[in-house]
Design a protein that fits this description.
Blueprint: E1 3-5, H1 7-30, H2 37-48, H3 54-73, H4 84-102, H5 110-134, H6 140-152, H7 156-179, H8 187-207, E2 215-217
Antiparallel strand pairs: 1-2
Helix pairs in contact: 1-4, 1-5, 2-3, 2-7, 3-4, 3-6, 5-8, 6-7
């Protein structure tokens, strides 16, 4: 029997991945030892503009990533990828929901807080793997890196590292300039960077069976 990929199921898997990733970001952040590099700038922006939630600053900064993709690729920017705006809006909502859930517990023990950073990083990697396997719309951060690779003919891994380091440096400068100190960036940021990268190595094959969920029987003519 022939099968084809269901767009509706791709959307469902993408939303599931966003929910898992959002909770992972919240877990990592609520330990108060830093956050993942990709979330470092939105977190510092959240501290700088308190009326905006962490999820909202994540949304607005990711809009800048989408705008960067459009500026880099021009007419080569796939129209479908404008849906990144909706994706990151949903992601921001899940981050705020995760932050609210995580607010119901707080660890004073340093080892437990660091364990929360590692656990959050693992959960985040699972969410990323689900989004990749959905194979529908890029996460704006990933999309921006892909656009840079396409324009400058560079390897994804190296551009990704440079992109993450740049975000952390910008977050650090913003924190020092606006808050007169270092906030949202700690040793947990470095731990999360390594933990997410290492976790993705097993998260990708672990989540591979979900691809079967995307297939539905092709209609008979």
């Amino acid at each position: 029997m022939k099968h084809h990929v269901s767009v509706a199921r791709q959307c469902a898997l993408l939303i599931c991945g966003l929910a898992v990733a959002g909770f992972g970001v919240a877990l990592t952040t609520c330990a108060e030892l830093g956050t993942s590099p990709i979330s470092s700038l939105p977190l510092v922006a959240h501290y700088c503009v308190p009326p905006l939630s962490f999820g909202m600053t994540t949304f607005f900064i990711n809009l800048l990533f989408v705008a960067t993709e459009v500026a880099l690729l021009g007419r080569k920017f796939p129209p479908l990828q404008f849906a990144q705006v909706a994706v990151v809006f949903v992601f921001g909502m899940f981050i705020d929901l995760g932050m609210w859930v995580c607010s119901f517990w707080s660890f004073q023990n340093y080892a437990l807080r660091m364990a929360e950073v590692v656990l959050g990083s693992v959960v985040l990697s699972l969410g990323i793997a689900l989004q990749i396997h959905a194979n529908l719309v890029f996460n704006p951060g990933e999309g921006c890196v892909k656009a840079l690779c396409q324009v400058f003919h560079a390897r994804f891994a190296w551009v990704k590292i440079a992109f993450d380091v740049s975000l952390v440096l910008i977050a650090l400068i913003l924190s020092l300039a606006a808050l007169h100190g270092v906030f949202g960036l700690r040793e947990g940021t470095l731990v999360a960077a390594f933990a997410v990268g290492l976790s993705l190595r097993w998260a990708m094959p672990l989540c591979r069976p979900v691809k079967k969920f995307l297939l539905i029987p092709a209609p008979r003519h």
